Amino acid sequence: MSWLQDKFTESQKGKKAAKIIDQISLMANSPKWTLKHMADEVDETLNAWTAKIPGASKSAEMQRAKETQVMVKAMIAHLGDKVTLNDIEKLDRKQKLKLVIACKKPMDEVDHMLSTFKQMDIMHRILRMRKENGKELPTDEEGLKMVMMSEGMKVMTRDEKKEMKEMYQESMKNKMAD
């Protein structure tokens, strides 16, 4: 029985590695990262066979993915599927409030979603830069994290760096308060 479990686990690791390579390739080869790309990623997660296992759909990860899917689809319906990070950053307060209403979620959840989209856009820019410069693309999650840490500052705008610094300082303040 343990042999079967080992084979199953090994197979899962292989499928996860292949999925990561596909995601990296998609990001490196896409000229722009859009809400449609993000929606496709979420849909793929929810349509994986592991999501069909009884009880798996009730896991915290699947519940988050479902909530994310609802929000991204509402954003696409409200803003369009070709919307990029630049478009989102140009939203004024009134447009952002309309987006919150369209998503039927609190502002902090929409802000978190937009922050996730921003992180994915930064990852996209890093991978595009590496591809355009003839550098090797990472082949696993660990390699992707290393590339993000080592090259993230090269593709981030001054405002993104400032925002990241403020978020870091805020998190350090919160840790000190606890």
Features:
8 helices; single chain; mainly alpha; 178 residues
Question: What topology emerges from the helices and strands here?
Answer:
Elements: H1 2-29, H2 35-47, H3 60-79, H4 85-89, H5 93-103, H6 107-132, H7 141-155, H8 158-177
Structure description:
It is a single chain. The chain is mainly alpha-helical and 178 residues long. It has one domain. The chain is 78% helix and 0% strand. It is built from 8 helices and no strands. It has helices at 2-29, 35-47, 60-79, 85-89, 93-103, 107-132, 141-155, 158-177. Helix 2 runs antiparallel to helix 3 (60-79). It is globular and about 60 Å long. The termini are far apart.
Structural class: mainly alpha
The residue ranges in which pLDDT falls below 50 over 5 or more consecutive positions are: none
Helix content, binned percent: over 70%
The helix count comes to: 8
- Based on CA atoms alone, the radius of gyration comes out at 18 Å
Distance between the termini: 46 Å
Please, how many domains?
A: 1
The count of β-strands is 0
Helix/strand order: HHHHHHHH
Query: Strand content of the residues, in percent?
Result: under 5%
Give a quick account of the main beta sheet: strands, pairing sense, barrel closure: none
Mean pLDDT: 85
Molecular shape: globular
